[in-house]
Write a sequence for this structure.
């Protein structure tokens, strides 16, 4: 009688383990694709607003909100509990020459890179299909801007961890600048996150309506 060698005995279980792992990996990839299909790249409900139109309404230190069209935008928009219009926020910067930019913390959906930085109003607006403006009621906008700028260069926080500020996400930047400007101030935290709708809190902000 011929008996299989020890290697032969191990060969089939090894193959089964390999193909099981491969199948599991495939299922994870499929689930990931389904996730992004559900929450990403939604069709624009309307074209991005014209930057020249938005520029007429903004002032230095305003919080600018957008409904983005990137990979995670729909997910964060839907995390809002009351007002689900917006998914991302930044701070309007208007220079002495009238140039209008936006200070914000943004991570790249695909590469994972990102940081607190400055982009043009045009760049910020073109990634949206809806723009909102929230104006500080009682806090000096000039000091708010100066304090927000101290966080330029901080990496984007993909863990969304409010316990530390070595890395910062978009609404966290607003929150930190507020706290640095007026002790005891800050944005509402919901389930461990500061959601975009927190920047519409009427105890701190007045929403500026953009009339067409």
């Amino acid at each position: 009688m011929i008996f299989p060698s020890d290697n032969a005995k191990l060969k089939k279980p090894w193959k089964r383990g390999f193909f099981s792992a491969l199948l599991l990996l495939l299922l994870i990839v499929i689930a990931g694709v389904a996730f992004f299909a559900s929450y990403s790249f939604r069709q624009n409900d309307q074209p991005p607003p014209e930057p020249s139109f938005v520029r007429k309404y903004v002032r230095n230190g305003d919080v600018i909100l957008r409904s983005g069209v990137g990979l995670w935008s729909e997910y964060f928009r839907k995390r809002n509990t009351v007002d689900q219009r917006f998914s991302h926020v930044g701070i309007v910067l208007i220079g002495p020459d009238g140039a209008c930019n936006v200070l914000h913390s943004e991570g790249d959906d695909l590469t994972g890179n990102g940081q607190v930085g400055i982009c043009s109003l045009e760049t910020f607006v073109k990634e949206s299909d809806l723009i909102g403006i929230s104006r500080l009621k009682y806090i000096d906008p000039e000091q708010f801007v100066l304090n927000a700028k101290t966080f330029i260069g901080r990496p984007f926080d993909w863990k969304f961890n409010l316990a530390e500020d070595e890395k910062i996400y978009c609404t966290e930047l607003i929150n930190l600048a507020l706290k640095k400007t007026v002790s005891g101030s800050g944005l509402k935290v919901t389930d461990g996150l500061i959601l975009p709708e927190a920047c519409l809190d009427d105890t701190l902000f007045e929403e500026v309506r953009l009339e067409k």
In short: The radius of gyration is 23 Å. The first helix runs from residue 6 to 39.
